[in-house]
Every structure is written in structure tokens, then in C-alpha cells.
Fold these 2 entries.
Entry 1:
Amino acid sequence: MVGRGSAPLWAVLLCLSARLVTGDQDQQPSAQLSFTPDELWKFIGQAVRSEVQLIFGKLDLERRLETLDFSVTALESSVEALNSRQNALDARVYATDTRLNSKGDTLDARVDDLASQLYRRGSESDTIAARLDDQNHSLKTLGASIESCQVQMLEWTIKLDHQQSSLEDLAKKVSQNSVKLNATSGLLNQSLQSYYMEGNPNDWRPRMEELAEEVNNITSRVNKMAASGPQLEQLTTRNDMLQLTLDAASAALNASRGQPATSLPRDCSELPAGTASGIHLLQPGLDRSVPPTPAFCDLESDGGGWTVVQRRADIQPRQEFYLGWQAYREGFGELDREFWWGLESLWRTTGSRDRRYQLRITLGDFDGERRHAVYGTFRVSSEADGYRLAVGNYSGDAGDALKRHNGYRFSTKDRDNDGYSLSCATTHRGAWWYEACYDSNLNGQPLVGHNTGQGGISWNKWRTWDYSLKAAEMKIRPQAQTRT
Ligand SMILES: [Ca+2]
């Protein structure tokens, strides 16, 4: 049997034609090829179907090939597009590369720069660290000095306590001696009385000779002390000042006990004619409940009668004038050297309604030249008003360097009453009736002649602000008073 459905159509047709020819000639049915017509038609149908399927399969393949061809074309165009995009990307990568290279160079340079800066900072830090070490060392030394000072002070305190107890002993002895002296004096009186009544001068001769010898001894000791000169003078001055302070304290005590104070002058112009210049006790103003205060009276220069209220002079050691409000209110320094009398005393004196004052300022430079400025009116208001300055009626040859300060309140390093956005007192290390800031600065720093910075003892209308004067004095006196 021939396989059905798998033989090609041409082979089937060839077989069929051969069978038909043989059958027609000898009419003997073949043993190998014998079909019924139905089987034959069925067989042909199958062969035709298979052939048709093959043809259709080929057709499908062609269609798929066409599709593939189309896809290949599409792919080709895509590849082209990709190529062009790659080219564009290559160009961008190249550009970016170039940019990165140049940025890299810049960054390298900056890194080098930073490295060198760091190196410099490092060496600066080393310097600062070394300085800090130095300062630490200085601070430690200072600390040790302070400690040793404290120890010294403790020792002094002990010594002072000891001296005080010695003085107390001495005082007791003096008191005992005083009692003895009184007793002796009483005896002497009795003896004198008996001498006058019945005595014989010859009995007293030995005692008189003894006394004469004692007087001689004392005189020679006094002469020796006088020969020690300036020291003694200084001691005498200090003693006088102590005495004045004691007088003031005593007067204050009397005032507090409701006893009338001794009649003291209100200012130096009230001292009796012929009084010597120097330190005298005053009762400034009209308020008798205020303790008296010592003042330096100039009773000879420029007609005399002057109460000196400020003095700057080239005397060593220099008095510190860069002080606060409290010091300027109460006054400071030593009246026979450099000093500030005190704003409170100035107000009590010049603020009195019954007496008007004038001010005389004398100045001296380091070339030995002297100038003066006189103000016919001078007044300082109360502390509540900031010790405000009122001056006028200028005359003199130093120039009017107070006019700018007229009407301004007093300022110190701890009390800013000036007309400046900052503090003139701290900027220029002084204390004055500052505006913003000054034409005169007589409480400034003793900078000795020409200096590069402001803040000296200046009177800008004579020597300029960069010149610090050698001497300055301010003194007051009632108006229209001259004494000869
Ligand atoms: Ca100010």
C-alpha cells in the first residue's frame, strides 16, 4: 500500500496514468495497484489538500519574509539614527572632557593655593600659640607677684597692728607723763610760791643750770632736724594736711552734735589779708551741715584770693587722672602737687546765688612758654544736672577753648554725658565737659609734648590737639575782686 496524504501530487498523477493505461490494454487487474474509484478520489483529495497546504505554507513564508524585510529596513534606519546619536554623544563627551580637564587644572591651582594658605595659617597659629604661652607665663608670674604682694600686705598689716599697739602704749605713757607733769607743775607752783615768800635764789641755781643744759640739748636736736631739710618740710606739709583733715573731722563732729561750726571762709578770698599761700580749710557754699574741706589757696599770683581747683604739673610720680565719676565728684590727688578739687565742692562754691565767680586758667608748654585764659563768669551746676558747665566773657592770650564745652555736662569713663555717639572719656582717656569731643582736655593723659594720638593735656586754641602741655592750673575767685 502506498502511504496516503504524503506523496506529492505529481507522483500520484503519474501512478494513476500508468494504471489506467495498463488496465485498458489487457483488462487484467493488477495485483499491486487496484483501487476503487472512491478510494482513488479520496486519495486524490488528500494529495490535493496536502499540495494546497504546501502552497499556502510557501505563501505564508513569503509574507513573513516580506515582513522580515520590512523589519530589517526599519532596523537599519534605527541603527542609522543610533549611529548619529552616538556621534552626537561622542561630541558631547569630548566637550565635557575638555571642560573637565580645564576645571581640573583650575581646581589643582586652587588646591595648591589652599595648601599654601593652610601652611601660612599653620605658621601663624604657631606664632599665636607661642604668644599665648608667653602670656600664660606672664599671667603666672603676675599671679605669683600678686600672691607675694598679698603676703607682704599681710606682713605689713601685722607690723601696723604691732605699731598701733606700740602707739597705744606710747599714748598711755604720754598720758601718765602728763599726769606726772601736772603733779610736777603743781609742786613747782608751790615751790615758786614758797620761793617768792621765803626762798633763797642760791637754792635754785643748780636746777636752773640743769634746765639751761636741757634747753641747749633740745635746741641742738631741733637744729639737726632742720638740717635734714626737704624731708622734714614734706613731713611738715603732710602733718599740716593731717591737721586740716582732723580739723574738718572735728568740725563735722561739732556740726553733727548741733554745735556751731567754727567760722570758716567759704573760699580763699575770705582769708585775712597777709595769710600765706598754701593749704587752708574752707566751708564751701552756704550749707553749714556739709563738712569743711581743705583747699589750696593762691593768695599772691594775679591779684591773689584764688581757690585752686585743678593742677597738672610735671611732678613724679604722676597723679592718675583717668578716674571715674566718684573720684571726680569727691576730688583726688594731693593739694600741693597734682590734684582735682572735686565737682561737689565746685558746685557748692560757684552754685551759690549770692556770689558769682570767675575762672582763670594758666598753661605752660615744654618750651617754657606760658599762656592764660580768663572767664568772667564760671559756674558748675549740681550733680543732678550732671555738673553742667557755664562759662563766658573770655579774655586772655591762650584762645577760647572752653566755648565749645559751654552748656555741656561732665563726663567720666563710667558716666557718658557727652554729645558724641561713643564715649569721649573712654576714647581719649580723660574726664571733661565733653561735646564730641573737645577743644580742651586738661584732665587728659600726660603725654609729654607732641604725640601722635589724641587724649593729651590739650588746649587746642593755643597748641594743637596733638600737643600735651607740661602744666595747667584752674583757679576761681569771686567776680570783680582783686587784691594787691
Ligand atoms: Ca556719648
Note: The chain has a mean pLDDT of 81.
Entry 2:
Amino acid sequence: MMLRTCQVLCSQAGPSTGAWQALSFDGGAFHLKGTGELMRALLVLRLCAWPPLVTHGLALQAWSQRLLGSRLSGALLRASIYGQFVAGETSEEVRGCVQQLQTLGLRPLLAVPTEEEPDSAVKTGEAWYEGNLNAMLRCVDLSRGLPENPGPTGNILMQLKVTALTSTRLCKELTSWIRRPGASLELCSERLAEAMDSGRDLHVSCLSTEQNQHLQASLSRLHRVVQHARAQRVRLLVDAEYTSLNPALSLLVAALAMRCNSPREGGPWVWNTYQAYLKDTYERLRRDAEAADKAGLAFGVKLVRGAYLDKERKVAQLQGTEDPTQPDYEATSRSYSRCLELMLTHVSQRGPMCHLMVASHNEESVYQATKRMWELGIPPDGPVCFGQLLGMSDHVSLALGQAGYAVYKSIPYGTLEEVIPYLIRRAQENRSVLQGARRERELLSQELRRRLLGWGRRVPH
Ligand SMILES: Cc1cc2nc3c(=O)[nH]c(=O)nc-3n(C[C@H](O)[C@H](O)[C@H](O)COP(=O)(O)OP(=O)(O)OC[C@H]3O[C@@H](n4cnc5c(N)ncnc54)[C@H](O)[C@@H]3O)c2cc1C
């Protein structure tokens, strides 16, 4: 019934309701921001485009602490990189940041910054994962307690990194098992879902006793986060990571989706992330969308280009295996565009049973999404939303928000010590994006010149 209502709404909102109006990403929306904020953004984006800063970020931070002392070096970071990309340390600071975003028409997508060192003993014990579980539960509460967004209810979203709750070693083990030809039904989503529900021990023959215990503890942590998020009406967007882990992550998501994404629950509560830079993503996305359809489950997708390009290629080269990534940037963009088209068509057919986040800073992808939404009659503030990182591509986010689209900024928060290693890792992964933020820097310079020197006209918006 709900599905039919939305399909009717979607078809009524079709292209006939006025001419298509392209969004303009010309920085006009910067008028919403203070001069201090624009200056900081320009400074930080210029610094981040300087490769040595990104490559040696952690060493530089340690060096500045020794030279300037932790107070002064901390103050410098707060006024620059931390201030630009992080919401703050305390709940109050996060709330303040979110309120400011909301006045600009933007919404929060909180992310707990966790960094697992693959082989670090400190960060692989159960206690570390239990600590992360508590941080996730607090993040659910914080997301729930933030001022409500206008628009349809049920639009509180939060990012979930599964490897904060289970070890990468276990995920790798499960992945290689899943990939084996004729892998047994021992590792199917139904069995994992049952083990989560019952809390009874699950024994998987490919795992050692210790790994089986860790699997059980991980399933219990995942179950607790998801149950809590669902009770608080917070939707969880599971991050995609490396290809050596993703099949295991997808299996866990499938198990969670069986319990949380049934139609009577009101849309998908657990979403998966699809990385267009992988050669097999389009097919996987098509198969998963069809499977959800067949099983009568809601389907939630965060569509990204992918953040781990260099490492994926390095690993393939080292192992002498086929590179799983697209051969060049253009191929990734074509793949993104095809996946986007597939999902938008799916949304237009399935209505609120299918949700999509277009997680990209790319102007062409955002343009394609908004245009196709209009052509397919998908309302701007419906099951399709947009996602960008806090402090990045504000000219795109603000233009979308001002036009009435649902736009989320991915927001890390936490102390300097917790967040800086996370930020540096993300900056290394998104090196090409930071270096490619040239247009954003130009638009910022243009607006600042206009304000400070009275040069140039105000950009129409
Ligand atoms: C809200 C949000 C959530 C995210 N969640 C995840 C996540 O869960 N998992 C994840 O992996 N990433 C995630 N990302 C990061 C994302 O995958 C991209 O790295 C980032 O957004 C840059 O892509 P773009 O479309 O914004 O920008 P663009 O500048 O248009 O694209 C840059 C991207 O193109 C691809 N690319 C660049 N050069 C080449 C090349 N030579 N060959 C092939 N491909 C190339 C890479 O994927 C690169 O990141 C997320 C991003 C956002 C905004």
C-alpha cells in the first residue's frame, strides 16, 4: 500500500510539473557563509593540495607537537584542519556544528572515527571492539538527539564501519571462504541472522575456535548496534572498504537486512555501500537490487566512486592477481553513471522501499542525479539524498540544499588525538579529490576577493 502511494506520488511529481532547472555550482551559495569560514576553507584546501603534507601528515604533527608544545600545536590544528573537517569533541560542539549546517539547509551523517591497525595487538583485542561498540551506541543516541530535520520523518542517517566491531583478519578469512568455488551454505546470511537473533554459538568449520568466538562476539556487537539504531529510528549506512574484506561485510549486511529491512519496518534500516571504481560493482548492484526485490526486502544504497584505489592496485600487483579497479578515472565515472541510472530507475519503480545516497563531490554526477530525478518524477526530498564530506565541496552541498534536496555532510567528531590519524588516513585515500578541489579553491578566492576588495560582481544564485 505504502509502496503504491509513493509510486503515485512519484509519478505525479513527474517532469510535467515545470521546466528542468539545472543547479548552478558557481559558488553563488557561498553568500551563506562567513568570511572567516571561507578564509579557513581556502587555506586548508590549499594546504591539503600540497602532497608532502598529506604523505607525512602524522610525522609533521608529531614534529609540531615537539617544537611548539601540544597546546599551541593543538590550537593551530583546531583553527585549521580539525576546524574545517571535524564537528568538535563534545556533544555540545557537535550539536552547534549541526545547527549551523541546518541553517544552511544541510543534514548530519555522523561517523565515529576509528582506525584499526591491521596487525596491532592493542587494537585487535575484544576490549577495543567493545569500546568501539559503546562509541557507536553513543553515536546513535547523539544522532537521534540532534535537532530534527525538516521533511519526512525517518531521515536520520549514520555511518557504520563494520571493521570497528570485528577484526579485518576475520573478515579476510570469511572473504576467502566465500570466494571459494562451491562455498558451503555454512556461511549464508540466513545462518548468520539466526545466530544474531538467538545469541547461540555459531560454528563455522573454516575458522579456528578463537576465530569462531570472535565471530560470535562480533555478531552480537552488530546486532546490538542495529537493534539500538532501529529503536531510535536511525538508519545505518555501512561503509565499503577493501576488496579483501567487502564480501564478508556484504554477507553481514545481508544478514542484518533480512531482519531490519522488511517492508513493515518502514524502508531500509541497514544500507550497503557500492564502489563504482570496482569492475564488478554494476553487476553486483543489479543482482543485489533484484534479490532484495524478490525477497520483498527494502534496499538501501550509498553509491561512491571508492576510496582505496592505490592500495587495491598495489595489493593486486604484489599478489600477481587481476587489478579489481577500473583502468582509469573515465571508466570509474562511466561505471558511477551506470550504477546511478540503475538505482534511480529502481527508486522510481520501488518508491520508499529503495533508498539511495549519491555520495559524491563530483558536479557532473550530482547534475546527472538531479536531472534524472526530475525526469523520473522522484521528489527532491524523497528516497534519494546526497552526501559529501564536512568541509569539502560546500559549493555543491549548499546549492543542493538551497534547491530543496536532502543533503548530508559526513561528520567525524572526537578529540584531536582520535581524529587526526583518521583525517590523515582519509586525506591519503582521497588525495586525488583534495588535489582536484581546484575549482572549489577558485570559487572561494573569487568570493573572498569580492568581499574583501570589492572586486567582481556577486555571483548570481
Ligand atoms: C558521504 C560519503 C561516504 C563515503 N563512504 C565511502 C565508503 O564507504 N567507502 C569508500 O570506499 N569510499 C567512501 N567515500 C569516498 C568516495 O569513495 C570517494 O573517494 C570520494 O567521494 C571521491 O569521489 P567523488 O565522486 O567525490 O570525486 P571525483 O573527484 O569525481 O572522483 C575521485 C575518485 O575517482 C576514482 N579515480 C580517481 N582516479 C582514478 C583512476 N586513475 N582510475 C580509476 N578510478 C579513479 C577514485 O575512486 C577517486 O576517489 C565516501 C564519500 C562520501 C562523500
Note: The radius of gyration is 22 Å.
